[in-house]
Design brief:
Protein Transport Mog1p, Chain A
Length: 231
C-alpha cells in the first residue's frame, strides 16, 4: 500500500511572494489595491501623509521629517492575509534642483570625496510582514519574482551586483540589477531583505531608478536607511 506524500505548507513569506506575483498583473502594487472595492476602507487614506507616517511607524523608525528629496506617497496596512501584519510604504526620491546644479559645478576631486551624494529619481517600497526563514533564500525568490513599487512593476533580467548592508545590527543582503517593465523599457533596480528571527519579522525593500542613469545610485536607499531605527 502506497503512502501518500504529506505536502508541507508553504512558509508565510512564500505565500506573500505569491501574492506579490498577482499584484504584478495590475502593473503596480498601488494599481491593484487602490482599485479593490473590498478594501476601500483600508485604502481610502493610503495617500494621506498622516496615515502613511502611522503605517511607516509600524515598519521601522522613519526619520520625521524625511530627509530632503524624499517624500511619502503611499501606505497600506493589510493585516488581512494569514494574520501576517502586512504593511506597505512607498517613498519617492527626487534630487533637488539646487543639489543637481551644485553637483554639476563640483570638481572631480569633490565628487570623489562626496561618496554619499545622490542624484536622479527613484521609487522605493518598504514591505513588512510577520515571518521567518533564510534571508538569502527569500532574497533570491524576491529577485526571481520581480520588482514592485507603488507605481512600477517589472522583471529583473540581469543581476549586476550583490552585496549587503548592516542595518539595526542585522545583515541585509541586496541585489542590484537591470529590470524591464511591461513596455520593455529597461531601468536599474534593487531588491533587499532582512529577517529578524527573534521578532519573526521580515522586511523587503524594492527600489527602481526612473531617470536615464545607466548605473543604479545605491546611496538613495543607503542614506535613508542610515536615518532609520527600531525595525
Amino acid at each position: 500500500m502506497e503512502t501518500q506524500a504529506v505536502r508541507k505548507p508553504l512558509p508565510q513569506w512564500s505565500r506573500l511572494l505569491i501574492l506579490m506575483v498577482s499584484l504584478m498583473f495590475a502593473g503596480s502594487i498601488y494599481g491593484i489595491v487602490s482599485g479593490a472595492m473590498a478594501f476601500k476602507a483600508t485604502f481610502e487614506h493610503s495617500q494621506e501623509a498622516p496615515y502613511i507616517k502611522k503605517v511607516a511607524g509600524g515598519i521601522a523608525g522613519f526619520p520625521d521629517p524625511l530627509p530632503s528629496g524624499y517624500e511619502y506617497v503611499f501606505g497600506a496596512d493589510l493585516d488581512l492575509f494569514w494574520t501576517t501584519n502586512l504593511k506597505f510604504v512607498g517613498v519617492d526620491y527626487a534630487a533637488d534642483a539646487t543639489e543637481t546644479e551644485s553637483a554639476g559645478k563640483k570638481s572631480d576631486k569633490d565628487v570623489k570625496e562626496d561618496k554619499n551624494s545622490v542624484k536622479g529619481r527613484q521609487q522605493i517600497l518598504f514591505f513588512s510582514c510577520k515571518g521567518k526563514g533564510e534571508t538569502e533564500e527569500l532574497l533570491d525568490s524576491a529577485y526571481r519574482i520581480g520588482l514592485n513599487t507603488h507605481g512600477f512593476s517589472g522583471k529583473f533580467t540581469k543581476a549586476v551586483s550583490r552585496g549587503s548592508w548592516t542595518f539595526q545590527g542585522a545583515t541585509m543582503p541586496y541585489i542590484v540589477g537591470e529590470v524591464e517593465d511591461p513596455k520593455e523599457e529597461k531601468h536599474m533596480g534593487l531588491v533587499a531583505c532582512m529577517i529578524l528571527p527573534e521578532k519573526e519579522k521580515i522586511l523587503l525593500l524594492y527600489a527602481v531608478q526612473l531617470d536615464d542613469e545607466k548605473k543604479y545610485d545605491i546611496n538613495v536607499c543607503m542614506n535613508l536607511l542610515k536615518e532609520m531605527s527600531g525595525f
